[in-house]
Amino acid sequence: MFNSRGFTLIEVLISMVILAIGLLGLAAMQGISLRDNQDAYNYQQATLLAYEMQDRIKGNSDYWKSNIPSQNKGNECNEVSDNCTAAMLAAYDYWYWKNSVETILPVPKTGNTVEIKSSVGMNNGGCKGTYTTSLCLITRWARTNNKDTNQSSKLADTATFYLEVTP
What is the model's pTM? Predict the structure, then answer.
């Protein structure tokens, strides 16, 4: 008769190799999932910070309808000061927003982290310039995709969130 001794051992060895390849695939998917989860968290934070700035703009809408403060002004004024002008408060709000974004989100290698532009004629991202007084809040941060690997990604290294605001 035909001797089949050791045949089961080969089957077990092959199934172990297949199982190991499957587990390596699961581990790789877990790493991708963690990176994508971090990107989603950063997007959520950028959204919350932009909406907070929108509320600050609406709270000081008389100034923001006709002006965009300089980025260079700092925290010479805050919400609780009694002697703040509308311009000083707007400059503080802009500074506070930029500081919050740079503290919470990863800073991109190039470009500004935040910008406020008139959205009239901009037609970029989510800002269509619907009204003549519309402003476009732009938030940028570094994505976490493929930073530690040599793989190429279809996603950009920098993510951008646009929010159109009408003061």
Answer: 0.76
